Amino acid sequence: MANVELSSLAQLPSLNKLLKLELSDNIISGGLEVLAEKCPNLIYLNLSGNKIKDLSIVEALQNLKNLKSLDLFNGEIKNLEDYRESIFELLQQITYLDGFDQEENEAPDSEEDDDEDGDEDDGDEEEDEAGPPEGYEEEEKDDEEEDKDEAGSELGEGEEEVGLSYLMKEEIQDEEGKEDEEEEEEGLRGEKRKRDAEDDGEEEDD
User: Fold this and answer.
1) CB neighbours of 86 closer than 8 A, spacing ≥ 6?
2) How far apart are CA 161 and CA 148, in angstroms?
3) Which of 78, 71, 88 is nearest to 54 (CA)?
């Protein structure tokens, strides 16, 4: 809710899971006790560029027990003497004020850290998605072998059927051939008999 001319937090909804709140460049001058009631788990709070003037207003943030980083940059309160020392003494739970700790060490960029973590997580997820689950290849091979066995058995049955029908056809053809041969033999015998009879007749005539 940065730069939206917000002057009061009285209407802030209850956000128990909220960890980071941006309230910079508004006209907030007090009423910070609402934050502890509505957003008790805040870790990062940005109140820079507001109308907060003295420590008594900031004191209400003591109830934000998880608060680690507070930004009051460009606020009127920065004009106070010993501003940083006073804030760190007042809010002993915080580690960073205006982006630096008490030893003037700069705070790590939480957004970059989040991105790096996110990228690493995404990479792990991609690897998990790309790689087959354990036992998957073995199961696939088993399935392929079963398919081959089934196909082989089907082919075997088909070959047997083909072989049987082929043999049966050969037997039928053999039987037909035998019948034709027998008929031819009988015809030849008949012709011989006729010739023999004719020959006998001719001899009698003589």
Assistant:
1) 55, 80
2) 20
3) 78
